[in-house]
Amino acid sequence: MNVLFPRTRAELFQTLAEPGARVLAGGTDLLVRLRSGRETAAALVSLDKIPELRGISETGGEGLGRGLRLGATTTHTELLAHPLVRARLPMLAQALSELGSPPIRNMGTLGGNTCTASPAGDTLPPLMALGAEVELASARPHGAGTRRLPLAEFITGPGRTALAPGEVLAAVHVPLPGAGWMQHFEKVGRRNALAVAVVSLAALLRTERGGTVAEARLAWGSVGPTVWRCPEAEAVLVGRRLSLTALGEAAAVVRAHVKPMDDVRASADYRRTVAGNLLLRLVAL
Ligand SMILES: Cc1cc2nc3c(=O)[nH]c(=O)nc-3n(C[C@H](O)[C@H](O)[C@H](O)COP(=O)(O)OP(=O)(O)OC[C@H]3O[C@@H](n4cnc5c(N)ncnc54)[C@H](O)[C@@H]3O)c2cc1C
Predict the structure, then answer these.
(1) CA nearest neighbour of 226 among 77, 116, 73, 119
(2) Nearest 5°: CA angle at 161, between 159 and 167?
(3) How far apart are CA 251 and CA 244, in angstroms?
(4) Pick from 128, 86, 93, 102: nearest CA to 227
(5) What domains appear along the chain, each with residue ranges and CATH number?
(6) Which of 103, 132, 189, 229 is deepest in the core (most CB within 10 A)?
(7) How far apart are CA 189 and CA 204, in angstroms?
(8) So what's the pLDDT on residue 140?
């Protein structure tokens, strides 16, 4: 099979227009699926040589909220090494540090994790809680060739996204939470290393003086077809301190609303219990 390495945006969209051409980033998902015969491709179009798709830059300032533009082909290792990711997005950094193994993090990219749209994709719960948006690029000239969507609208189901034919994910935009926001990520798997999430939780909480929760954003992985939010549990926490009583009430609401699945890794009952229990950890924040 041919692997093509376009060097400009124009070449990229030209090669992608070939029948059966597929986007290749790190290949850690796609090559596994191609080798197993679950998917096919007539040619692979690598994003590796297109500079505008890689790297991390700051956005906003002067009245606009500060944020980061995370280029789609930035690897998990590169993201983890960035000081602003570590300092300002610790829950994303925690998720990245538990994703796969060092070789997978060296090859795998944020764009690949996002476009695979797995219910167990480790970066997705933190990005969803942070209110990330995706930047999509297509062959249309200049500005008209770019559109932005909330990540929550981009992922439409397990393995499904809103990518139009011929479109690529160019970047993920993440707002940087200001002072007063607390972040937490935890993943439960069947073992400590190289584990697919059985349940994960990303929690982003803004507290006021005295420790009262003013805003809560909770996002679970691996308990539904896509990342799952529970506004009812968020509402239980708002206006309260992060006591075991408040968290226990929120955990009960989670268990009542979540609809997880049985699979080879865990039963639905186990997932339901753990999805609630993970909230209790927030007492330590
Ligand atoms: C041993 C092993 C362990 C793993 N462990 C984990 C884990 O713990 N947690 C986890 O979340 N994942 C895990 N994965 C899955 C995988 O490594 C990640 O999802 C990774 O981030 C995929 O990125 P990639 O660059 O390799 O994507 P690729 O395999 O190159 O691409 C994946 C899919 O996305 C499409 N695509 C990629 N980039 C773009 C783009 N910019 N625009 C449009 N489409 C695009 C491709 O066409 C393909 O369909 C594991 C995989 C392996 C093999």
Answers:
(1) 119
(2) 125
(3) 10
(4) 128
(5) 2-46 (3.30.43), 54-175 (3.30.465.10), 183-284 (3.30.390.50)
(6) 132
(7) 21
(8) 79
Q: Using a 6 Å cutoff on CB, does residue 121 contact ligand 1?
A: yes
In whole angstroms, what is the distance from residue 162 CA to residue 160 CA? 7
**pLDDT digits 0-9 by tens, 124-136:** 999 999 999 999 9
- Ligand 1 atom with minimal separation from the 72 CA: 41
Beta carbons of 202 and 91 less than 8 angstroms apart? yes
pLDDT reported for residue 192: 79
What global pTM score does this model have? 0.96
Distance between CA atoms of 221 and 199, rounded to whole angstroms?
6
Closest CA to 170 of 69, 19, 20, 26: 69
Q: Is the pLDDT of residue 142 over 80?
A: no
Structure tokens at 69: 């533009």
Q: Is 28 in the pocket of ligand 1 (CB under 6 A)?
A: yes
Ligand 1 atom nearest residue 22's Cα: 47
Integer CA distances (angstroms), 249 to 43, 234, 243, 280, in order: 52, 11, 10, 10
